[in-house]
Design a protein that fits this description.
heterotrimer, A mainly alpha, B mainly alpha, C mainly alpha, A: mainly alpha, flat, C: mainly alpha, 9 helices
Chain lengths: 84, 117, 231
């Protein structure tokens, strides 16, 4: 039963990772990275590591995305937007 | 669990490929972040033992049962600190990107040619 | 194209090196160190959460090093983004006000997030949690305030004071362990008490509080530097 959950989460993570690397939109790539962190925190719960899951849920899907978006905003403020 | 460690290795490969082939600095840092998550998955999956529970002593797991019914606490502890350090390192990389953009007005690594061999 | 073939070669070599790790047979028993920790950890240190006792006590020196790395990374962010003259127009313009939804939600949610963070820090030795998790959640609470009310972040001096004091407290507890119990970072300078109660596990909760405040202050400092509030 749990194996289907792992396969499902793994497929979502792989698609999100390949999308994050391939896409031309920086914001979409950053959001896909946050999705990877969120799915990873669920996998950590399955692997009996609740401490790691709490940290990953707060950092991987929350703070990492905020840090990327703040840096991107500063770059946009410095002048013009540019994709890829 | 083997499935999760294979997933972690594939994430490492995707992140490494992204870091090596992309031209935009932010995309390179996104690749680094993906690789980071893959490494964490691999390390935690190495400490997991099928059918065992989290190493926290409570009513469900008495102290005497812990060696036979709990998973390895050491990889969890290592990954826990590594995640926080990974965020700080990502922020440092992003601040380098901001600084490079401020000086050069570009994020494309092909245009940053001072150290090109 | 030579660059592309080099990249493919590097990926193949990496896969070859990592392949033995991927097909490692699943283990049935704990390794020696893990078996010793799970067998004796509770009676030694009195903390119900073995992950916290590994972080704070068994690998305490590593954690001290990691906190130092965190401090260095924060200092690096501040150093790299530092700018003496204020000539760029982007930085001098008045910050845009946040929407009313964000402001009301931030005021409503902020106390609860702070209480959650403090709860997770203080219960790190008896349930999942600890200094790192709680510190990050505290940083999220202050991030919410920073997003909702631009220019109202924590004062820079207060952040630096909290960061330095918590770091000093961590090292001070470690040296107290050396003086009283005979080992650097020995947490048995206080009675271990009843495992599973809030006041137990010696100095582990105190070190958790120090780590939590330090991690929270570092994270808020990184966010404030990237957002350019005042630093």
């Amino acid at each position: 039963m749990i194996i289907f959950l792992l396969i499902f989460l793994g497929i979502i993570m792989l698609v999100a990772a390949i999308f994050a690397v391939m896409t031309k939109e920086l914001i979409a790539a950053i959001l896909a990275t946050g999705l990877i962190g969120l799915m990873a925190s669920v996998i950590f719960i399955v692997l009996a590591a609740p401490d790691v899951a709490m940290t990953e849920a707060a950092i991987g899907s929350g703070l990492t995305m905020v840090v990327f978006l703040l840096a991107l905003r500063r770059i946009r403020q410095l002048g013009g937007s540019d994709n890829d | 669990m083997t499935l999760v460690s294979i997933l972690g290795f594939v994430l490492i490969a995707v992140g490494l490929w992204g870091m090596l082939t992309r031209r935009n600095l932010i995309k390179i840092i996104v690749g680094f972040s993906i690789m980071d998550t893959g490494v964490h998955l691999v390390i935690v999956s190495l400490g997991f033992i099928k059918g065992r529970t989290a190493p926290i002593i409570n009513k469900a797991l008495s102290a005497g049962d812990a060696p036979s019914r709990a998973v390895d606490p050491i990889p969890s502890a290592l990954v826990l600190t590594a995640i926080v350090i990974g965020l700080a390192v990502t922020a440092l990389l992003l601040s380098f990107a901001v600084r490079i953009y401020r000086e050069k007005r570009t994020l494309n690594i092909d245009d940053i040619s001072e150290l090109k061999w | 194209m030579i660059k592309r073939s080099l990249i493919v070669l590097l990926l193949i070599v990496t896969a070859y090196i990592l392949y033995p790790l991927a097909i490692l047979p699943p283990q049935d028993n704990l390794g020696n160190a893990a078996a010793a920790i799970t067998a004796d950890g509770v009676t030694d240190l009195g903390a119900a959460n073995l992950v916290t006792s590994v972080i704070v006590s068994y690998r305490g020196l590593d954690t001290l090093g990691e906190v130092t790395v965190l401090f260095l990374a924060t200092a690096g962010v501040g150093f790299v983004l530092f700018r003496k003259r204020k000539s760029d127009t982007a930085d001098t313009e008045v910050p845009r006000q946040a929407s009313e939804f964000l402001q009301t939600g931030a005021i409503f949610l902020w106390p609860y997030i702070v209480i959650l963070g403090i709860f997770i820090i203080f219960h790190g030795h008896i349930s999942p949690g600890g200094g790192f998790q709680g510190g990050v959640i505290l940083a999220m609470a202050f991030l919410l305030i920073m997003l909702a009310f631009p220019g109202k972040a924590l004062p820079e001096g207060f952040r630096h004071a909290m960061e330095s004091l918590s770091g000093l407290a961590y090292v001070g507890i470690a040296i107290a362990g050396l003086a009283i119990a005979g080992d650097f970072l020995n947490t048995r300078i206080l009675p271990t008490g009843q495992t599973g109660s809030l006041i137990s596990a010696g100095a582990i909760p105190l070190i958790s509080v120090a780590i939590g405040i330090k991690v929270g202050a570092e994270m808020v400092t990184i966010l404030a530097h990237l957002r350019k509030e005042e630093a």
